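User: Putative pre-16S rRNA nuclease, Algoriphagus iocasae:
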Amino acid sequence: MARIIAIDLGTKRTGLAVTDPLRMLANPMETIETSGLLAYLKTYFAKEEVDTIVLGLPIRLNGKDNEMTPKVMEMKGKLEQEFPSKKIELIDERFTSKMAMQSMISMGSKKKDRREKAGNLDKVSAAIILQSYLERQ
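Assistant: Predicted structure for Putative pre-16S rRNA nuclease:
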């Protein structure tokens, strides 16, 4: 079965998460520079079978777009153009960063480590986005 990949797009860094082959679990993958996202995905898709890309959609609590929403929609268009055979899904990502931080705290991550490894927050956020998507299926 093909995997599902999730993207937590940022202006500088992007967090990635992927399902196991049975599509039951969301696993944090890595954090990469946003500028290299499409190249990274091309390489990854050449090695792994992926049929769905879940993209976190940042919106305000009142349901309105925030400053990152247009960038996510632009990336969605690029993904559709670059990978026409892949299904692109948008999912509300409100509170994922806070949930990721709480998850890191509950796993025993020290404050110093959380500060030094901000990239961990991005990939854990992507995993939360992906797990939320899986639970809705």
